[in-house]
Amino acid sequence: MGRGSVKRAPAPVIEVAGLRIERDAVILDSIDWRVERGQHWVILGANGSGKTSLLSALTGYIPPTAGSIAVLGQTYGRSDWRELRTHIGIVSSSVHQLMAGHETPLETVIGGKFAQIGYWGEIAPADRARALAILKKIESGYLRDRPWRFLSQGERQRVLIGRALMTAPKLLILDEPCAGLDPVAREHFVQFLERLARRRGAPTMVLVTHHVEEIMPAFSHVLILKAGSVLAAGDKRRVLTSAMLTRAFEAPLRLARRHGRYALSVKRRTDVVI
Fold first, then answer.
1. 163: closest CA among 202, 208, 120, 130?
2. Does pLDDT of 274 surpass 50?
3. Which pLDDT score, from 0 to 100, does residue 101 have?
4. Could you report how far apart the first and last alpha carbons of the chain are, in Å?
5. Cα–Cα distances in angstroms (integers) from residue 213 to residues 22, 207, 257, 263, in the given order
6. Kind of pairing, strands 171-175 and 26-35?
7. Beta strands in the chain (DSSP E)
8. Cα 66 vs. chain centroid, distance in angstroms?
9. pTM for this entry
10. Closest CA to 266 of 258, 209, 250
């Protein structure tokens, strides 16, 4: 680097500006959101607030009506979004129903390299070795040959994360990954997410959820959506408050925090908002 030259800051992981999406009605309006490297975000909001539509826009499945979307330094409309998707890991409970009952976690993880469900091709030794290393990384090495039908919901979610990690993504989107988990399985899973987020070289993580109990200490920032717009976005300690959640869910809520974890309760109408 020559004398006097300025070192350019790395591009944000996600940069959304003035995003508007219309179909028969306005789905998202004036969305501004920026995710920097080293941050892990949670997206909160009531049903119909726009969480799913925002994810679809980020991954190029819904084109914007106005505004701009940039992910990993690539701008929508100027880059090949199909190629960009190979650098984004997406985990959703809706994928469960697409998996064959006989498929093993080893096959599922390897299939992630090719964005293929029900992998049938010949497995290269290098792909097998990488998949085994990922299964160990996600604390699921012992599951490598167990058929999908015999996995618990929590085990399946871990394997789907392993599948997403097969391409070494820089961004990992978790779309309500705890849906369908019982309280014990959910707690084990979110503790696993905490360990994964704190691993060296972990991808930037975006967790979509309805439940503040799933927000682990590793998640540093929160985006709250309401009726297709940003209600609040920023540092978790500033954004995640009783008053803000009361506005988001249109109900009198009390947020409690202890040892970095959160719990939410509905207040009686006679209680005072703090």
1. 130
2. no
3. 83
4. 53
5. 32, 12, 10, 5
6. unpaired
7. 14-22, 26-35, 41-44, 66-71, 74-75, 88-92, 171-175, 204-208, 221-226, 229-235, 253-258, 261-266
8. 24
9. 0.86
10. 250
Residues 72 and 170: their CA atoms lie apart, in Å, by 8
Q: pLDDT (tens digit, 9 = 90+) per residue, 145-204? A: 999 999 988 898 889 999 988 888 899 999 988 888 889 989 999 999 999 999 888 999
Nearest to 13 by CA among 32, 39, 31: 39
Separation of alpha carbons 182 and 157, rounded Å: 13
Looking at residue 62, what is its pLDDT? 86
Q: Residue 210 has what DSSP assignment?
A: S
CA distance 39 to 16: 16
251: DSSP letter: S
Place of tokens 């976005």: 233
